Amino acid sequence: TISTLSRExxxxxxxxxxxxAAKGAAKNKDGKxxxxxxxxxxxxxxxxxxxxxxxxxxxxxxxxTEKVLGPIPGIDVGDQFYSRAEMVVLGIHSHWLNGIDYxxxxxxxxxxxxxxxxxxxxxxxxxxxxxxxxxKADEIIYTGQGGNDLLGNHRQIGSQxxxxxxxxxxxSKDNGNLIRVIRGHVAKNSYTGKIYTYDGLxxxxxxxVQKGVQGHVVYKYKLKRLEGQPSLTTTEVRFTRxxxxxxxxxxxxxxxxxxxxGQENIPIPATNVVDDPPVxxxxxxxxxxxxxxxxxxxxxDCAGCDCEGDCANNKNCSCAQLNGSDLPYVSFKNIGxxxxxxxxxxxxxxxxxxxxNCVNRTSQQGLQHRLEVFKTASKGWGVRTWxxxxxxxxxxxxxxxxxxxxxxxxxxxxxYIFDIDCLQTMKGLDGRExxxxxxxxxxxxxxxxxxxxxxxxxYCIDAGSIGSFARFINHSxxxxxxxxxxLTNHHDVKLAKVMLFAADTILPLQxxxxxxxxxxNSVVSPDGKIVKLPCCCGAPDCRKRLY
Length: 547
Ligand SMILES: *[C@@H]1O[C@H](CO)[C@@H](O)[C@H](O)[C@H]1NC(C)=O
Ligand SMILES: *[C@@H]1O[C@H](CO)[C@@H](O)[C@H](O)[C@H]1NC(C)=O
Ligand SMILES: *[C@@H]1O[C@H](CO)[C@@H](O)[C@H](O)[C@H]1NC(C)=O
Ligand SMILES: *[C@@H]1O[C@H](CO)[C@@H](O)[C@H](O)[C@H]1NC(C)=O
Ligand SMILES: *[C@@H]1O[C@H](CO)[C@@H](O)[C@H](O)[C@H]1NC(C)=O
Ligand SMILES: CC(=O)N[C@H]1CO[C@H](CO)[C@@H](O)[C@@H]1O
Ligand SMILES: CC(=O)N[C@H]1CO[C@H](CO)[C@@H](O)[C@@H]1O
Ligand SMILES: [Zn+2]
Ligand SMILES: [Zn+2]
Ligand SMILES: [Zn+2]
Hints:
One of its GO terms (cellular component) is chromosome. This is Histone-lysine N-methyltransferase. This protein has 547 residues and is an alpha+beta fold. It has nine helices and 26 strands. Among the domains are: 62-225, SRA-YDG (PUA domain-like, Roll), CATH 2.30.280.10; 248-294 and 365-514, Beta-clip-like (Beta Complex), CATH 2.170.270. It has helices at residues 2-27, 37-42, 48-58, 84-89, 164-175, 318-322, 405-408, 422-427, 443-446; strands spanning 80-81, 100-103, 120-126, 134-135, 139-143, 179-186, 194-211, 217-225, 254-256, 270-271, 285-286, 291-292, 329-332, 335-338, 345-346, 371-375, 381-385, 394-397, 401-404, 417-419, 459-462, 466-467, 474-475, 481-487, 497-502, 511-514. The longest helix has 26 residues, at 2-27. Bound molecules: 2-acetamido-2-deoxy-beta-D-glucopyranose (NAG) (7 copies) and zinc ion (3 copies). One zinc ion (ZN) binds next to loops.
């Protein structure tokens, strides 16, 4: 029955796709680029998920053949899915077009459901199809289904009927049964254009009939989130519904249009709704690149590859060979993303003949996402994103003044100092976890005498007085970024570039954070006392102390 249902859905989806395609074709008869973007996205050949799900249906490899009520084992709050098809396969939501998934009359016969009224809703997807949905995260006003034209323009063209999913949601109020809630977010880089997150369990607490914005009858349901679940990663949805934020000039609490003063290729506004009067971040000079202090010599550029174009598919590329002829990046829509954290990543550098867009120069492309520096209530300044950032995407280099560690030792501890500890990470010293590729054969690794005490990081980056927005990215014990050492022009690990990459899908308005990675009791004041700093990151497994 699942498969007949899905086949039914598939037919409907096909009809919609054809309709959209026909519309698109009519709009640009001359076959030029442009026109209805939707049509291009939805053409079946561009939808591997639809192909995959059809195959899986044939092979009977769906996880559940019956619908499930309540939590699904293995699916946690915050889990993400790149298509509706994925959720169908996992039994989270078994319609790939409808917003409301429900158990039909046949479930009535089951003993365990004897006291429920059917049809009964099990899951809803909120993806902004209906123009008057209101979403306050813990409380949702959900519009029933039907009566809109399915063309993705959110228009209500007719009245809704109290049947199928709409009736199911109404019954769910009387049943008091659990409903899974999924939110869809716009994400340009996802092959479906969307990312879906599982936001946990809700109950329908109210329902009523209303005239929609266009004057048609629509059914409305109020859902409340159950308490005691992990908190939502998206507590605010004002930007995600419409994707693009309002203009920078309209931001509440705007204190600076662009803290980079035009240095970054995308402006980074700063907002402050905490202080009265609101003050901008101050006390530092913005620089998007590393400054080298006197007396430190950066090794000269080493030989590069002699590839033409972008190094892709070139087995002879000497840069790729450094990494076992397999570069650590994948490219999607011309944006490189790191496949996995590595001990160190080799990129193409100054003496490579490939072009600037080579995917193996991913960390050199500059800022890719719209970000905002904002004042937090308890943690000073922080940085959040306006765009959806995909796992492995480069965020920024940690820049400041490059110094010898011994130069800053003995000074009062400054929270903006970042030790270049790539070597220590590679060797798994000081409780650091070793990463893939740590045992590579690299001259600079063995230049030190290994049998001696582990060398402390020789160099550090001090962003105390000069730095980029990276200096505002806060610590979290449950971070969404990670630190990656990258080598480009030279191959001296002690002086590697320190880059931050996304560890997870980061949704609009989420704060960026990484694990500062201090070893407890490692910070000592000039008079020899251990300095302690409490952590306010708020993560459930917070270590309570930064150092
Ligand atoms: C249904 O309700 C009856 C009466 O309240 C109760 O005895 C029975 O256990 C319920 N069945 C289930 C499956 O909960
Ligand atoms: C790298 O390029 C610089 C000039 O850009 C040149 O002086 C140097 O010799 C080159 N190094 C190697 C190893 O090719
Ligand atoms: C790779 O290098 C070898 C030896 O230098 C050469 O024979 C071969 O043609 C090169 N292959 C490509 C694809 O450049
Ligand atoms: C490394 O240290 C050991 C013992 O301290 C010493 O015998 C050896 O010569 C050193 N090797 C180098 C290359 O410095
Ligand atoms: C990050 O938060 C801690 C408190 O948890 C605070 O002491 C620190 O100054 C913050 N760092 C930045 C860069 O704002
Ligand atoms: C020179 C180089 O690193 N080439 C690699 C670039 O990345 C692609 C993967 O996207 C590899 O296939 C290349 O070998
Ligand atoms: C030399 C080097 O770092 N090689 C690594 C390249 O990447 C693969 C995995 O992607 C590692 O297994 C190699 O050790
Ligand atoms: Zn190359
Ligand atoms: Zn290259
Ligand atoms: Zn190269």
